[in-house]
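Feature request, filed as a ticket because there's no other form

It would be nice if the structure record came with a short human-readable summary line next to the tokens. Right now we just get the raw output. Example of a typical job, pasted below so the devs can see what we mean:
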Amino acid sequence: MESVSFCHPTAVISPDACIGKGTRIWQFCTILRGAVIGDDCNLSQNVYVEGRTSIGNRVKIKNNVSIYEGITIDDDAFIGPSAVFTNVINPRSFWPRKDEFKATRVKKGATIGANATIICGVTIGEYAMIGAGSVVTRSVPDYALVYGNPAVQHGWVCYCGTSVALSDVKNKYECPECKRQYSCDEGILKEFGEF
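Raw output as currently delivered:
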């Protein structure tokens, strides 16, 4: 923990957690034994991280988010305020199900909006965008824009987070902001040069 660039005095961090250099940990955060957090992350107020979790580099987790066992968050992901993760499908306080935890993965560069709920066992694709307040019950493709309850796909987003528009060429998309171009084949969006 010596490499953490800032740790608020109200944070409670296990000495057995692994936290990368340059990471900032704010008020009332709790990080348990066995948690792995990468470099240059920002954990805002009241973030709770259990053991057997993995958080990549440059991840931003906003206020009031709990990261439970079995959740993996890859590099450059953004988790909005009060987003909710689960790790068991049918919890009961009186019936232990720790051996039934389902893994959830948030892939590189994905964004989860404020107050979204992520049901366990899904994968959020690279650079996908989950709208605020959505309930995600199934895996989300790379670059997909999903929202609603249950969340359904409403289009595609660019690496930069802007919705991409269909160009004049069949199955080709272009970002109006950064001008990146994509092709879509069988429901899979790929940036040119990624093939």
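Something like this underneath would help us a lot:
Residues 166-195 form one domain.
The chain has a mean pLDDT of 94.
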